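Data follows
____________
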Amino acid sequence: MGRRFSFKSYQRTFAKPLCTALGEWSVREGFIVRVEDESGLGYGEIAPIPQFGSETLIAAEAYLQRLRIDSSLAEDASALAALPCCAFGVSAALAVEPSARRRDYSVAALLPAGRAALSTLADKLSAGYKSFKWKIGVEPVVAEQAIFRELMVLLPVGGRLRLDANGGFSMATLQSWLRVLQQFPKQVEYLEQPLAVGQEAAMAQLAESSSVPIALDESLHSHGGLRWFEAGAWSGPLVVKPALMGAAGTLIERLRPVASQVVLSSVFETAVGLENTLRIADQLPNYSLAIGFDTLAAFADSLPSQKSAPILRAVERTRLSPETIWKQLQNLT
């Protein structure tokens, strides 16, 4: 029996549109790829976000159509060079089950933009979350900073907040925010990608002078972003979206030297893509930070997923079969 690839597309509507500095996102589209050979079945997910430098949905589907006819394209480096999401999904589907055991992971709760963050924070605290991520750069600076101060009042001792600007700040806005964040060193975990790609030197300088940790996200997923994974290249956290970063095996080797800085982050994939990502984390012994995957209940459909919880348990990961998701995709409502 030779190797055979097949794929199914999905289109999922957010229960509430996701608002970020990049705009509003209401529908998530992507593909599940399945490979069948003598060793059994494997599943991967292809979930492009062109705004982060990945291929488009059209380009991904064109590759998958060719792969279905010619399975050798799965190892064609030239074909996959400009298709990082396809490289990730196909490599995950082909991956041999690693020897590393599945682990539990703390999850950072996702707070919506604006004042809705206040009620969501209260709910998430009641559920047991200790780490939180808040999207900023959506509303006027003064309004968001006032909300931030209210969040700080609600956040208990030991709670940590990540703020994500999605590269939407001007230099003046960043300096204004740093003056505020400096006042809460025990509660602010980091400020994520405040300036646009290409302004990393300015961010590094301000992080050092303000003592507010600044994380890179969009900078890692842009052209030339791999340089930030070199040891000592960046002092703050590295927010990694594995589904956008090419072949899984290559990514594991790239992340090992900087694993203590890595924060694995969602691209609003299905439970298939989540498990593809967590199998990478399982192979990084020094990985310790809360994962950014409080995204499982984001959609208004019946597709199975793990339950959103402050800790994603290894035992829960084994209970959800990718075959179940595969079979349900054609009936997705």
In short: The chain is about 30% helix and 20% strand. The mean pLDDT is 94. The longest strand covers residues 4-20.
